[in-house]
Specification:
Layout (H helix, E strand, L loop, with lengths): L3 H12 L2 H4 L6 E3 L11 E5 L11 E12 L8 H16 L9 E12 L6 E12 L1
Parallel strand pairs: 1-2
Antiparallel strand pairs: 2-3, 3-5, 4-5
Length: 133
């Protein structure tokens, strides 16, 4: 049985590589970024996984959020955010499923939102469906 922490930790290790980290000036975090962070960070969160009892596999949903400060005119710096989002999506798509990994990842969608906790910031959210044993 997997836990949300173990799922996020596996994805963190997969994303914490130079092809992703060179697109940000901050860090990759699990669950939450530091309060008032002024850096372009990535945050990995997960919805609660079912307990797995009586199930052969556990379905889950993971969100990978890439944060960016808006330009002075309030617009999202689209090209910079796209570079990070593309790197995240590419890395998730590169996950090589095999019976020994017990984890399958599939991109379910992507959207950009205003950050309600930090005025003047936006984030790209990549939704990932995960299946683990």
């Amino acid at each position: 049985m997997s836990t949300t922490y173990s799922l996020m930790n596996r994805i963190y290790k997969h994303l914490n590589v130079s092809t992703v980290t060179t697109t940000i000036n901050g860090r990759i975090y699990r669950r939450k970024r530091p309060l008032n962070s002024a850096k372009r960070d990535i945050v990995i969160t997960s919805l609660t996984l079912p307990d797995g009892e009586g199930m052969d596999v556990q379905p889950g949903t993971v969100f990978i959020n890439s944060f960016i400060r808006n330009d002075e005119d309030g617009r999202v710096p689209e090209s910079t955010l796209k570079t990070t989002t593309d790197a995240v999506i590419s890395r998730i798509n590169a996950w090589a499923w095999s019976p020994s990994t017990y984890l399958n990842l599939e991109i379910a969608g992507e959207a950009t939102y205003d950050d309600p906790d930090n005025p003047g910031w936006s984030y790209s959210s990549v939704r990932v469906n995960a299946t683990t044993e």
